[in-house]
Model the fold of this input.
Amino acid sequence: MPTTSYWLFVGFALAASFTPGPAVMLSIHNAMHYGWRRALWSSLGNVSGLLVLTLLSALGVNAILHASALAFNVLKVSGAIYLIWLGVQQWRGASRGARPMPATSSSTVAPERHPRALYVKGLAVALTNPKAIAFVAALFPQFLSPSRPMTPQYATLTGTFMVISLVSCPVNNWH
Done:
């Protein structure tokens, strides 16, 4: 992959990662309610989901999604339903008068604050996030050079995207 293409990819990855979306909103929510250290768990889940998406793209799912409008639509609708469900859960929590709890308020951790639960929620958001799916499925391959070996190119782009995504969630929490 030419150096120019790589830096262009970095620019797109930065824009995609720092643009508010479901992953950033989840990270901000978790930081506000559970503290930034717990929010890192959902960010790690998000990055893991991005890794899965890029691996699927590398294995040819990208071609399947482009060939099958039905498969792409099922994926988009599933993602939209999950995001609506997350929004309803937030709305219901707010209507019950849920208040942010300090991350160090108790020695026992409520189930929704447990690192594993936060990780899984971050993973699910990444796997169903239309922005991430579109970025990986449509834009990601545009930066690959067919004349060069694919594995090192995918590894470089995937690693770069994961680092940018991991850094973007905590940075967005500091605003």
Summary: The longest helix spans residues 69-95.
